[in-house]
Specification:
alpha+beta; six-stranded antiparallel sheet; three-stranded antiparallel sheet; 3 helices; about 15% helix; RNA-binding; S4 domain-containing protein; S4_RNA-bd_sf; S4_RNA-bd
């Protein structure tokens, strides 16, 4: 095993490489800057985004969604909705009970105890489209898959913040 004694560390802003110079044979070791980023994430107790292990087919349309990982304690609908809207489970339960949430474009029973499955599509109603109330603006979530971990579930999903669907709340 060869031991290097580091004498200098230079970081070039124009280059994506770190340059480590050592004194034994004056050689240079190039290290990608991503390794530095990974070390910073570990130091801050954050994990880098994981590979979800699912290939997302290209449908030819522009990518207008975000891939996200929700870390939740259970697969209950109110837990997922609360993470999506950034509010508490009580507020998420109100949205479900007032009919502002649909699963797979169908009305759900008025309860928060529905357990989401892979390929479920969840629509959270925001408001009717201005000028045409037959359509509504929703926050759409598509469950890709989920993994059981020690802390609960890691739910991999696609998320659209502004998505337009037929307004199921329009009584006309």
């Amino acid at each position: 095993m060869e031991v290097f004694q580091m004498t200098a560390l230079t970081i070039s802003r124009t280059s994506r490489l770190l340059r480590l110079n050592h004194t034994l044979d004056y050689g240079t070791i190039n290290v990608l800057r991503e390794f530095q980023t990974f070390g910073g994430l570990c130091k801050n107790y954050r994990r880098p985004k994981i590979d979800i292990g699912v290939e997302i087919p290209d449908d030819g349309l522009p990518k207008d969604y975000r891939l996200q990982v929700f870390k939740v304690s259970s697969r209950r609908l109110d837990s997922i909705v609360s993470r999506a809207v950034g509010q508490g489970r009580g507020q998420a339960e109100k949205l479900i009970l007032t009919g502002k949430v649909q699963i797979n474009e169908e009305d759900i029973p008025k309860k928060a105890a529905y357990y989401v499955q892979e390929n479920d599509i969840i629509d959270i109603w925001k408001q009717p489209v201005e000028g045409n109330t037959k359509f509504a603006e929703v926050h759409r979530i598509e469950i890709i898959n989920y993994v059981l971990t020690d802390q609960g579930y890691d739910i991999n999903l696609k998320s659209w913040k502004d998505f337009y669907v037929q307004n199921w709340r329009d009584k006309n």
